[in-house]
Amino acid sequence: MRLSPDQLILWQHGALKLNATIAFTWGLMLLLTTAARLVTRRLSAQPQPSRWQNLLELVVSGIERQIGDIGLREPRKYLAFVGTLFLFVAAASLCTVVPGYVPPTSSLSTTVALALCVFVAVPVYGIAERGLAGYLQSYLEPTVIMLPFNIISELSRTLALAVRLFGNMMSGAMIIGILLTIAPFLFPIFMTALGLLTGMVQAYIFSVLAAVYIAAATSAGGPAPAAAPAPASRGGHDP
User: Fold this and answer.
1) Which of 37, 106, 187, 212 has its C-alpha lying 20 to 30 A from 144's C-alpha?
2) According to the model, what pLDDT value does residue 228 have?
3) What is the pTM assigned to this prediction?
């Protein structure tokens, strides 16, 4: 059993390799970009827009409302970044219904890349909101003694984001594979539904944590906490 889509090589020429992680990641980006283009090309202000526009408005307004509930004063400013994180992780899980597909989020390289995006976005938004001096000052709060601990917190939460998502997605894929091997005619529908549900939960957790860290960086409360608890995965507790 492959533990990661990195191990599935689709094409190789000398030192150049194309594995499933890269292929499915770019496939997801193409899918999301095409879907966004198709849905938004005929937006209407009429009282009865199309069903696709209704669905789009429902998703966007839901994400924006959730960002506002977290504490960010101008949710629309952060909608593109947080919404993209949610949609990518959610789409990566929903596409598991396609035969032969392996979610790229079950690869540590993908989850680390997503976590690094959050790691970069937090100071960018923090500096934009509070200025460079104000943001750097937050590392000295409540006292100068907290400087090394705040820096460690900044780094550890990035690792926590990456490992949490990777552990949940990889362990879930492994459990489904084991159960389907044992009882291929009994578990497929149930486990597929459970996998989709868990994938949506993980997308929600990842995007909410990103918004929480940004909210802490843009407020006067200092750097965000190192991590927040998340529901257990299909394979047990979070790593």
Assistant:
1) 212
2) 45
3) 0.78
